[in-house]
Amino acid sequence: MKKTLFLLGVVLIMASCGTSKIERQTQRTFKGDWVLTDVDLPSALVDVSLFDDVDTKCFEPSVWHFVPNNNKGNYTIENSDCNPGKRDFHWSVKENSETGGFDLVLKPEQEGKNAQKVKSGYRLELIELDDNQMVWEQTVSYDNEPFTIQMRFSKN
Fold first, then answer.
1. pTM of this structure
2. Domains of the chain: residue spans and CATH
């Protein structure tokens, strides 16, 4: 009896640590292909590398593919001047306890490493998400000054 109660307690604890219903619904909305149509920077004089990859201007337009059942995805840089090609990543949606909203966590795939072993990644605030468009924001630093980059997507 004690063993059964202990196992039941472990199962309940594990279930409570999983992804919430709202997070799962949000992840399903991501499903499919999206085009990054616009990257807004605070100044035309500033350009930064997104995701330690290529300059922001190289991301317009890039095609992003999200698969919610395994949290894998990829984006394709199409600009021939910008190291074109497909990049794989793992992603998840997490509730942000400070803002009450949701954040998107992206972990670029590293060759030879399981996604759970990848420690580095990017956390972006999910500003808007519906069946046709989404908006992300990321705060970064340039010359020790923080500023916000906004990325707008449309469903392909």
1. 0.78
2. 20-155 (2.40.128.280)
